[in-house]
Write a structure and sequence with these properties.
Elements lengths: L1 H6 L6 H10 L6 H19 L13 E13 L6 E11 L5 E6 L4 H15 L5 E4 L6 E5 L2 E4 L1 H10 L2 E4 L9 H14 L13 H16 L10 H8 L17 E4 L5 E4 L2 E4 L8 E7 L2 E7 L16 E8 L36 H7 L3 H4 L1
Parallel strand pairs: 1-4, 4-7
Antiparallel strand pairs: 1-2, 2-3, 5-6, 8-11, 9-10, 11-12, 12-13
């Protein structure tokens, strides 16, 4: 029986072994066989069980990031609910976490999220570890991953080395996957956390910023300290950040005009308030135009923007034909114009001309209307 368990590498079923034993003349009960097979399997696993050595980290060396599916929120332009993605990064030594919501995980989005995460951390680690996606690994030769040339250029710009996980190796993926699991458990609306659905992408961005503030100032069970306090120690071992972000994969540079728009392909596209005169990068993603701004160099940060500073996606519009500007009314709060372009007539304010009219208006808002 032990020989059969060894041949099957501990996977053989007890009922099948019992059938063979009966053919060999065994007259005992099947329950006896099951007990004996269970003990044989346990002895086999004891000699073949895979053991795991804890990862002994050092400050300033490793940063990991991974992606997870986020909640559905109203999309840009159409307002229909769309799937979002959560960029989840953490420092292996201090356990400092950064979570950034995005609409996609294309290479320019990866670079912008990485820039924002590094600026939230306040320095650059020596290595960045992530999964083997096409934005990171374009091929494998003799089992060795071949990096995407643009991500190599981005790593050279920031002064770090990009490494990818070994396939099916939990030791090199456990930290980043745990970060994604913790973020999704708190940020994605479920029956377990009783979180309501998000009304906009800005609400999701604010929730991610609040989540990072909470977990980074909470005592970690493993270290007994808060990640924020340990980050102060780890910063002494981090490399300095470059002044300018890596813009190789972010598209074309544009300036935000006085009417809060950028021009691309002879079409004006609106941007949120507070960014007039700033430099923006625009790129085409499918049938959408993505507008990215470096918030780290703003003299005055807009009130609507929460989360880490750095390259941040501020707007996303459907590609339009020349002569048809794409304007989001939400980017112009309080503007005296209807959504269809018609001027909004000013609301007349009643002014009493005698005591009787004054007494009538004092009845309340109903009388004024």
């Amino acid at each position: 029986m032990e020989e059969w368990v060894e041949r099957s590498q501990g996977k053989v079923r007890a009922d099948k072994l019992h059938e063979r034993l009966v053919l060999l003349g065994f007259t005992g009960d099947e329950r006896t066989t099951r007990r004996a097979v269970a003990k044989a399997k346990e002895r086999w696993k004891t000699g073949h069980r895979r053991t795991y050595r804890p990862w002994i980290t050092e400050p300033g060396l490793w940063c990991q990031f991974d992606w997870g599916w986020g909640p559905k929120v109203p999309g840009p332009g159409s307002g229909e609910s769309r799937e979002t993605l959560l960029f989840c990064a953490w420092l292996a030594w201090s356990r400092f976490r950064v979570v950034i919501p995005t609409w996609d995980r294309a290479l320019p989005t990866v670079v912008s999220c990485l820039d924002s995460a590094l600026r939230a951390i306040g320095g650059v680690p020596t290595y960045v570890l992530t999964d083997n996606e096409k934005t990171m690994t374009i091929d494998r030769v003799a089992g060795i991953a071949v990096r995407h040339p643009q991500i190599v250029a981005a790593g050279r710009h920031y002064g770090l080395q990009v490494h990818t996980c070994v396939p099916f190796d939990p030791e090199s993926k456990g930290g980043s996957e745990a970060t994604v699991k913790i973020a999704k458990a708190d940020l994605v609306p479920t029956d377990a956390n009783l979180r309501e659905s998000y009304g906009s992408f800005a609400e999701l961005r604010d929730a991610c910023a609040a989540f990072c503030q909470q977990v980074n100032n909470r005592v970690h069970r493993e270290t007994g300290k808060t990640p924020s306090s340990m980050l102060d120690v780890e910063k002494t071992r981090l490399h300095p950040l470059p002044l300018l972000p890596h813009t190789l994969a972010l598209g074309e540079s544009r300036q935000i005009l006085k009417d809060q728009t950028v021009r691309f392909g002879s079409v004006r596209y609106s941007t949120p308030p507070g960014l007039v005169g700033e430099e923006a990068w625009v790129r085409v993603d499918g049938d959408e135009l993505v507008i990215v701004v470096d918030l780290a160099h703003l003299v005055r940060r807009p009130e609507w923007m929460q989360g880490p500073a750095g390259l941040t996606e501020v707007a996303r519009h459907q590609i339009a034909l020349p002569g048809r500007p794409v304007i989001d009314p939400a980017h112009y709060p309080g503007h005296p114009q209807e959504t269809d372009g018609a001027p909004r007539p000013p609301k007349p304010k009643p002014k009493p001309s005698n005591d009787a009219e004054a007494a009538f208006l004092n009845l309340g808002p109903g009388a004024e209307s």
